[in-house]
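User: Design a sequence. Structure:
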């Protein structure tokens, strides 16, 4: 198995699950009554957070408390982090080439266990429906990878599936960090809600 992620190729997706249809552009999370849908979390078209993996993706602040070791950020805190949002916006913008073609873009989210700081790195761009480079994170001494992000720029209107692919889900499960997928309808998540707290090497935990 190669290390990157693969989407759906160019085979159009035939929708068979009406529940996944973005009817009005906003999906409420019925599982969690306290869930909120931020109105402008990310600077890309229709930046709306969609629940995924059944648990719901809710952007929330990552808060550091004095005298308490920084907690491992979870996927919701990554989605709510300004640095992550900025990186996703840049990846989204870079997914649309001047010649009209689209390519997947993405990168990694790094967390400093001592300071609690969060930073990102962009990976080398992929092709229309895969991003091989995501499997090989740039290593930053003192920082660990706590998440990935990538784009699905192919339009739903052209028959493409935009939510996380089965390959994305395997990638998240096997590598052990949460992933975020930016689409024209907003942000999805896949993989575990957080990196396991007992693995501290700089790259992926697995
Ligand atoms: Zn993907």
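Assistant: Done.
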């Amino acid at each position: 198995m190669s290390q990157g992620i693969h989407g759906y190729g160019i085979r159009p997706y035939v929708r068979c699950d009406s529940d996944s249809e973005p009817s009005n552009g906003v999906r409420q999370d019925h599982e969690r009554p306290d869930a909120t849908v931020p109105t402008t979390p990310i600077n890309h078209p229709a930046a709306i957070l969609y629940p995924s993996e059944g648990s719901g993706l809710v952007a929330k602040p990552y808060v550091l408390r004095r005298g308490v070791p920084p907690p491992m950020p979870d996927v919701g805190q990554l989605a709510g982090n300004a640095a992550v949002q900025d990186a996703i916006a840049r990846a989204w913008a870079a997914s649309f080439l001047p010649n009209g073609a689209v390519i997947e873009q993405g990168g990694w989210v790094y967390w400093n266990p001592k300071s609690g700081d969060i930073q990102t790195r962009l990976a080398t761009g992929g092709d229309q429906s895969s991003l091989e480079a995501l499997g090989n994170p740039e290593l930053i001494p003192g920082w660990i990878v706590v998440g990935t992000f990538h784009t699905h720029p192919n339009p739903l209107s052209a028959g493409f599936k935009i939510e996380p692919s089965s390959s994305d889900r395997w990638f998240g499960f096997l590598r052990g960090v949460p992933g975020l997928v930016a689409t024209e309808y907003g942000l999805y998540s896949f993989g575990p809600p957080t990196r396991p707290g007992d693995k501290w090497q700089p790259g992926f935990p697995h």
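The longest strand covers residues 144-151. Helices lie at 75-79, 82-93, 166-175.
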